Amino acid sequence: MSRRLSREYAIQFLFSFDFNKNENLESMIEEFFDMKDNYLDDEKIERLSNGDKKFALEIIQGALSKLDEIDEIIKHSAIGWKKERIAKVDLAILRLAIYEILHRQDIPSSVTANESIELSKKFSTEESSSFINGVLGRIIREKASDNKTLEQNPQE
């Protein structure tokens, strides 16, 4: 199973979604995967296994379901940057990563951060990996701090 490839597909979808938010989400997802399947003869595009496609769908739908929350976290964590100034591909990478960090307990935050940095090197600029690393590092530290506080002060 190639979760990196699943993440690549998810980032590509989230990137395109940013430009087509008014369309029907389910048909957009179906068209996206159909388009990918139609270009599989191109040796540069790898085929997703059924498990990989399921994971890609889970993280796409999960990130979109938490989009408002994630965008608020980006505003808070991307110090000195307005969301509108962040490159769309970097925004897609951050959205996916933040969803995984905050809502997928089956994926270690360090794995998500490393994958996101590698994907930014592939899809974005050289400077993007440092930016994404900084934003995700801040979020991971805050999450760890919040978890530590909860462990010290459990609610009854």
Description:
The protein contains 7 helices and no strands. It has one domain: N-utilizing Substance Protein B Homolog, Chain A, CATH 1.10.940. It is globular. It is an all-alpha fold and 156 residues long.
Distance between the termini: 41 Å
- CATH fold descriptor: N-utilizing Substance Protein B Homolog, Chain A
Task: Tell me the total number of β-strands.
Answer: 0
> What structural category arises from helix and sheet content?
mainly alpha
Q: Write down the Rg.
A: 16 Å
CATH C-level label: Mainly Alpha
- Domain tally: 1
CATH architecture: Orthogonal Bundle
Contiguous runs where pLDDT drops below 50 for at least 5 residues: none
Describe the SSE topology.
Elements: H1 3-17, H2 25-38, H3 50-65, H4 67-77, H5 88-103, H6 109-123, H7 126-152
Helix pairs in contact: 1-3, 1-5, 3-5, 4-5, 5-6, 5-7, 6-7
List keywords for this structure.
single chain; globular; 156 residues; mainly alpha; N-utilizing Substance Protein B Homolog, Chain A
Write a short abstract of this structure.
The protein is mostly helical and 156 residues long.
